[in-house]
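Loading example: each entry is read as two labelled lines plus one structure line.
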Amino acid sequence: MTNPVELLWANALPGGTLSDGHAVLRYQEIPDAINALGILLCGYDLSNSQCVFIQVHNDTAHAFILSYFLTLRINCFLGSDGVPVPPFCDWIITARHEDGREWALPGRWQVMPNAACVKSDTIAPGAGKVFFASSGTTGVPKYIMHQSARLLQNAGAVADRFDIGPGTKVMVPVPVHHMYGFGAGFLPAVMTGADCLLIDRNNIIRLLTGLNSFQPDLVLLTPAVCKMMLLLKKEPAVTPLYITAGDKMNKEACLAFEQRFGKLVNLYGCTELGAIAVSEETAGSQQRSAGIVRPLKDASIRIGHTGLAEIQCRHAAGFEGYVNANGQPLAGRQEEWFATRDMGMDTGNGTFAIAGRADHCVNRLGFLVSFKEIENAIENLFHNIHEAVIVPDNQETLLGRRIIAFCHCTGGHEPDPELVKKTCQEKLPRQLVPDDFCFLEQLPRLHNGKPDRLALAAIITH
Amino acid sequence: MGMNTLPLDDVKLILKEIIVNDLDANIQMKDIGEDQSLYEDGIGLDSINLVNFIMLVEEKFNISFDQDQLNAATFSNIHNLATHINARLVVQ
C-alpha cells in the first residue's frame, strides 16, 4: 500500500521549494517533516478529529501544516482573521512562534480543544475534508465542504492549463485561506513540484519585492492590486503571466494593465467549484479585457438563453455541500448543474463572458444592467474614484429602480456629487448613471474584503 | 533652504506630516515612531494608503522611486525611508 505521505509529493524534485521570503521549505524535506510532526502530535489523535481549525497565514509554516492535514486526510477548516471558530471544529491549531523553521518541534504548534465543539453526523474523521467560510451576505454562517481529492483534481486542471510543473515559479500574494489562493496557487504549485513564493498581507512593496527577487512565471493578483499597480506606474523587471480573479476589471483598466505590465488573464471560479474558466493568453488583449473565458477541463457551462442570463456550471471536482456552524448539512447542492448566481453570455466557440452577480443586476430603461458595469464605468471616468459600489434602494424612478453609488476617493479630496452626476450624464449611457452619489472615507467590508452591500443599504435606510 | 539639502530630521517630519495630514489613515503624529514598521505591525498603513503615501512622497520631494527602490528595506520605517530620501536629495 502506498504511503499516503508520499502521494502528494510524488512530483517533488530536489530543487522544488516553498518559501515566504524568510523561511524556505524544500519539498523533498516534507515527507520526513510530516512523519516527525505526526509523532509529536500523536497525543492529540488529530486523525480521529472531526475537524481542525487553523487560522491560515501565507507563510511557509502554515503551508507546511496544511500539507500535513492534506497528506494525512485530517479534516481541516481554513480560517482567517475575524472568522470565528465554528462549533463543528473540535481542535484549534495555532503557530506559536513567528520566526524560525522548526516545523516539527514541540514548541512550534499549539493544539487546543475547542470547548464549544458540537458533534456532527455529517463529518466523519479522517475523511480528507477541507472547509472554507462562505462569502455570503445573509448574516447566517455557512461553510463550504470540499473533499481534498477533488480539490487536488481541480488544482491539477489549473496546473495543466498554466503548464505549471517542476521549475515553474508561482507567486501567491493572495490569501491561501481563500479558494483562489489555495486552489489556483498553492495546491497546483506544491502538487507539481513548482517553486512557490507565498506573500502574507500583500501590499505594493511586498509585491514588488517578491517580483524582483523571486522573478516568477505566474503571479496571482486581484483587481484591487492591479489598480494599485496602475496608479503607481512602476514596471517590475520581470514580465510574468498575471492572473486575476474576483470582481471583473473594466476593459480600459485591463488594457492599460497589459500595456504596462504584461498579459493578464482572468480566472473565473467560486469557492464552491474552485477554478471554472480562464481567459486565453493567445486570444488577444481585446478579448481578454472583454472578460471572455474558456472552461477548464472537468467544467461545463450552461447559460439559459441568448443574451445575458445566469451561468450554471457542472463540475467534476466541485464541493460536496454546505454545512452550518454545527456541521449539519444545508440545502444547496442537490442539482447536477450549480447555479453560480453570476450573469453571463455565450460568446461562441466554447467561450463565455461574465457580466456580474445575478443579484447585482437592475433593469434601467429596459436594459438589464449589472452593478459591476456601472461601477467600472464610474471608476474609469473619474481617476480619483478608487472604488464605486452600486446599491439599490426600494424606490422606483422613471429609469427603473433607484440606485446609489457609494464611492471611495483617493487623495482625500471628495468631488462634488452633483458635478460627478452631471459628468456621468454627459459621458455615459443613460442606463448607467446612478441616481445619487455618496462619498465615504472608507467602504464597509466583509471578511473576504468585498464591499458589504448590506451595510451600505442600511446607510440608505437611515 | 531648498528641498535639495534638507536635514534628515526635516525629511522625517515631512514624511510624518504626509501620513497625518494627507492620508485617510486616521493616524496621529504622536502614534508615529521613527523606527516603527510602516505596516500593520506598526504605524498601520494599509495597501491603499501605502500607494498614496508613495505617490505623495515622490511629489513632495520631487523624486521618483525606481521599481527596485520600492523595497522592504527602504520602506520599512520612517527612519530608513528618510535616510534614503536624504541621500538622494544631497546627490541632487
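The helical segments of chain B are 8-22, 47-61, 78-91.
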